[in-house]
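Lab intake sheet, docking and co-folding queue.

SAMPLE TYPE: protein with bound small molecule
LIGAND NAME: flavin-adenine dinucleotide
LIGAND FORMAT: SMILES
REQUESTED OUTPUT: full 3D complex as structure tokens
PRIORITY: normal
SUBMITTED BY: R.K., bench team

The fields below were copied directly from the construct record.
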Amino acid sequence: MQYQAPERDAQFLLFDVFRAQDVWAQIPALNDFSEDLINAVLSEGARLTAEVVAPTNQIGDQQGCEWRDGAVTTPQEFQAAFAELAAGGWLGLAGNPEFGGQGMPKMLASLIEEMLWAANTSLYLYGTLTVGASLCLDAHGTPEQKATYLPKLYSGEWTGAMALTESHAGSDLGIMRTRAEPQADGSYSITGTKIFITGGEHDLAENIVHLTLAKLPDAPAGTKGISLFIVPKYLVNEDGSLGERNGWASGSLEHKMGIRGSATSVINYDGATGFLLGEENQGLAAMFTMMNYERLSVGIQGLGSGEMAYQQAAAYAKDRLQGRASTGPQNPDGPADSLLVHPDVRRMLLAQRALNEAGRAFAVYVGMQLDLAKYAQDAEAQTRSELLTPVAKAFLTDNGFQGAVLAQQVFGGHGYIQEWGVEQVVRDARIGQIYEGTNGIQAMDLISRKVLRDGGVNLRRFVDLMAQTEVAREHQADLNDALDRLVRVTAYIVDHAAGDPHLSGSVATEYLDLFGLTIYAWLWGRMVSVAPADDFGEAKRATARFFFARLLPRTDGLERSICSSGDAVMALRGESF
Ligand SMILES: Cc1cc2nc3c(=O)[nH]c(=O)nc-3n(C[C@H](O)[C@H](O)[C@H](O)COP(=O)(O)OP(=O)(O)OC[C@H]3O[C@@H](n4cnc5c(N)ncnc54)[C@H](O)[C@@H]3O)c2cc1C
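RESULT FIELD (auto-filled):
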């Protein structure tokens, strides 16, 4: 089945729901972007992903990557597709124009990213790390560092990678061991071993720029003693040409459940030359510029997987003939009716659709907060984006995986075999819940850092904003109930967390789901309020009805589970596991 980018929905979100044209008109850096230009970019993104990127997806999964003596070969078809992606300027879409980026809004970039993730998750991993590394360099680099690296990253001639994880240090980066020794010339000598490094080594670009976390010899213990370094594969000469090969190499590739076209390396740094990015011992904070970008991007990966899976399942359900409708034959000339007549199949398709469309709106909304923070110095939008980032990462990837599994279910046994491609989406979507900070870590970030730390004040501000926005009248009461519930549950956690050190950790994941569903209720209410009186609008209204009737009520159970948790999670003695 051919992937088709959801172009109409993208336009609806940008111009009808979020009124991007009004937002951009207020921001000098963005007011050149006309609706026509943005529509042209969306159309070209849709063409590129359908015609160039998507056809490499299944074959890339089958071929996988190969390691030989430190060199890594990616699937053959990736070469031309990545070259076209790079040459088209897609990796510099939202990049700094001073260094060759196109300075386009994140609201738009989120939608383009979804297309790329959906069309080929493995291939776009090389892209997303390049975009994230550029953002980090742009935010923390010296003018020389920016001039050296950014134009090459935006053009995709070089790619980026983020090197954090070590075998004993994953979620807990404070205990990492990679060392950085200061050298007389101002550079650092990096020694240590990183594992699971996506795009750490490959053959798609002439240089690979690692952003690597390491500790100085006299660094304070824990996360306060981490510094960030630029450690390129080839050192760059003063004139910008490539010099000596740096002292790191891929030690091996991981063999994985999914994203098999993405090369995941062990990287051995053996006295490699690194250049400090930002300040000594401030590396984790600087890396967070990249990590926050990647968290939203990985969330959008989940959304892309969910959309790809839905498109496959919906097409299959229309064609596949099995059984008869309970009201009598709908296809009397055929041997059976299509799967679409069965309410249980519709339930699965509608759940995917309702979560994908709200998820897309959510990704664009978070993108809008990032645009407002960056280009209009809107501090409130910055805080809101920080509150929403862990939700975007975890809720979108959880729903993406669950959507992929639902799509597989719609296919019955045919979903379990390779031919149809949906089992690949399930395998590829699963990693989104794990890397870039597991979804458990995202939930902890939300509850501890983003909600409890200020006693729920920012969350309350966001709830007030949701309550004040105009939504479709038919959904207002359900939305109000959901907002009340979120406020009630937050107050419960704020009140009880101080006296119960296990509470926030025990209920964090449910709390994130409750928050996510409430945001989706708000977004559905907004979408319906501006949905047009045509087939597209009709489908929006029907999908919203399903969301409010069948998905939002889950918040009821989540509230009960959170508020009656007590010590249920901690009661079983450790030795009994
Ligand atoms: C395919 C792939 C690609 C990757 N790409 C990269 C990359 O490019 N760069 C990079 O640096 N890393 C990368 N990673 C590493 C990835 O980010 C880590 O695997 C992930 O952050 C989890 O770390 P871990 O595997 O050590 O698990 P652990 O940290 O050992 O976690 C195990 C479990 O315990 C839970 N847990 C741990 N600590 C806590 C806590 N404090 N509170 C509550 N729960 C906790 C986790 O949620 C998880 O469920 C990649 C991994 C994979 C598999």
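REVIEWER NOTE: Residues 162-165, 170-171, 196-198, 256, 264, 431, 434-438, 440-441, 444 surround flavin-adenine dinucleotide (CB under 6 Å).
SIGN-OFF: pending second check by T.M.
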